[in-house]
Amino acid sequence: MAAPFSGRPKCMRCVHFFITYDPFFPNGCRAMNFKSRGLPQDEVRSASGSGCLSFLERLLPSAGRADAGEG
Q: Measured between alpha carbons, how far is 68 from 29 in angstroms, rounded to an integer?
């Protein structure tokens, strides 16, 4: 399960961030259901004046796990 984030959100570390197939709008946010040219966090800040409230930090697999790379 993802944990809430206390610092400035970074879209690349968010579970809701995704890369789209659209070359004109390459970045997307599943939580807010939109695509954008820039990072969604910048679009949210310019539209609302505040930071993203839907940010959940993505849990990355740890490099030291015994089962990493097997299979």
A: 28
Average pLDDT per run of 10 along the chain, which is 71 residues long?
59 92 95 93 91 87 63 49
Count the helices and strands in the chain (H runs, E runs): 1, 5
CA distances to 23, 30, 42 from 55, in Å: 24, 11, 13
Domain ranges of the chain: 3-57
Residue 46's H or E segment, with its range, is: helix 40-48
Look at residue 3 in the predicted model and tell me its pLDDT.
Answer: 54
